[in-house]
Write a structure and sequence with these properties.
Helices cover 42% and strands 12% of the residues. The chain is α/β, with parallel strands linked by helices and 439 residues long. β6 and β7 form a beta hairpin.
């Protein structure tokens, strides 16, 4: 634990020193492109839409560290501490960040200016959703990262289960039946009576509530508990006690099994990337066979807004101070986050909601059909939400807060400890992770 704290403090202490030599390079001269990531999602996008443009003599080195328990940030921080002393082909060229902790890196000189250093223009980024730029804009008004996706979310439900419970799988009708939390809870009760779980587990609705917080997790180094967090705790306690969820943890094998052909889960909350990156593969009976109707539950799903609008996640690309591959990075940024044709193709091939307003409006109005969602064009459901996403409450502590609150409450949901004991466990674990905070 001391190592984690020291790395975090060291990163903060070097903020003022790291930017002394962040001048834009005139040419791409490096032979190794080192990219820090936490999973393979961006790697797949890169390989599909950019790898063919990579110079033949350049090798990509993917440094993949899972994000759980801050592991990705810790490894990245330690690498950033060594950045100035490493040989050119060992230096970080790019690294990725999520909204939950983006601010930790935005206000440091480790992240290069997308316009002045990397070389994108205001015209290049004019069609990106405003919130995706706001998150990565420093306190000095400097844009420090870009993304190919926007992440409004909704409720992805199993068509056959919806028919069994509600008598219809029509997205408009199901959406109306689930349009507020009281209705949602009533459907959960009905689903239970018919042998189904409304949600997979404890964490499924967490992002819906946490994204609607009116207060940030931390104000003046003090931890703040928003009423939305208490609402999530109360609902999840009720769902666990009444058997409305399957007591699975997010990302667990049990949660994924609920997506399969034999699964009994009515639905999952998530954005478009969750549909493509998690649910589509999770639905397959044969992972080696094609993603097609008849392979597991693939095609037996649909999408509606659900009881409360929300957004979840997002992956931003940052150029790192010290890179010798600015020209390549500029081309990556431009191709994967600014090119309307690429944005359209990603949306149509993977169902991802991409970061280009006219492209998404065109796909929403087209005859596009998502095969995983039974031919539904789900993009149109996201349009209004994407333009209204507000991330003014985010802090650099959000990932740790989210993980620790979910972990601390599970024993309470399962009646192993009291609510007061769960809160004590949360505060103990979070103050160990962030010793600069106060209860």
């Amino acid at each position: 634990m001391k190592k984690i704290v020291i790395a975090a403090l060291a990163l903060a202490s070097l903020v003022g020193l790291a930017g002394c030599n962040s001048d834009k390079k005139s040419a791409a001269s490096g032979k190794v492109l080192n990219i820090h990531v936490w999973n393979t999602e961006f790697q797949e996008r890169f390989n599909s839409y950019f790898a063919a443009k990579l110079p033949a003599d350049v090798t990509v080195n993917w440094i993949i560290t899972p994000s759980q328990d801050n592991a990705y940030q810790n490894k990245l921080d330690e690498a950033l501490m060594r950045q100035d002393s490493l040989p050119a082909d060992e230096k970080i060229d790019m690294f990725l960040v999520e909204a939950d902790y983006a601010l930790k890196y935005v206000d440091t000189d480790f992240t290069l200016d997308v316009i002045k250093d990397v070389g994108l223009t205001q015209d290049d980024i004019k069609n990106q959703y405003k919130y995706t730029k706001d998150i990565m804009t420093s306190s000095n008004g400097v844009l420090k990262g870009v993304t190919w996706q926007a992440c409004p979310g909704g409720f992805i439900y199993r068509r056959s289960i919806a028919k069994a419970v509600l008598g219809t799988d029509n997205p408009d009708e199901v959406g109306l039946a689930l349009s507020d939390w009281d209705k949602f809870n009533e459907v959960a009760k009905k689903a239970k009576s018919k042998g189904y779980f409304m949600l997979s587990g404890y964490d499924d609705a967490f992002r819906v509530f946490s994204d609607n917080m009116k207060n940030p997790w931390v104000v003046n180094n003090r931890i703040v508990i928003d009423p939305q967090i208490n609402a999530w705790i109360a609902q999840t306690k009720e769902f666990t006690q009444n058997g409305y969820n399957n007591k699975a943890s997010l990302w667990s094998a049990e949660s994924t099994q609920g997506m399969g052909a034999k699964g009994k889960v009515f639905g999952y909350f998530g954005p478009a990337w969750f549909i493509d990156f998690v649910m589509a593969p999770g639905s397959l009976e044969d992972q080696n066979a094609a993603k097609t109707v008849g392979n597991g539950s693939y095609g037996d799903w649909a999408f509606c807004k659900g009881p409360q609008g929300f957004s979840w996640g997002g992956t931003w690309l940052c150029a790192c101070k010290g890179t010798d591959n600015i020209d390549i990075i500029r081309d990556i940024f431009k191709t994967l986050t600014c090119d309307a044709d690429v944005m359209t193709e990603i949306a149509k091939k993977s169902g991802d909601f991409t970061n280009n307003i006219p492209a998404m409006e065109a796909v929403a109005a087209s005859d596009y059909q998502n095969p995983f969602l039974g031919g539904q064009n789900h993009i149109k459901f996201f349009l209004d939400s994407a333009t209204s996403i507000d991330k003014s409450c985010i802090t650099q502590y959000d990932q740790g807060m989210s993980e620790k609150i979910q972990s601390a409450m599970k024993d309470y949901f399962n009646e192993k400890i009291t609510l007061d004991q769960a809160w004590d466990n949360f505060y103990r674990s979070i103050l160990e992770m962030y010793p600069n905070l106060q209860k």
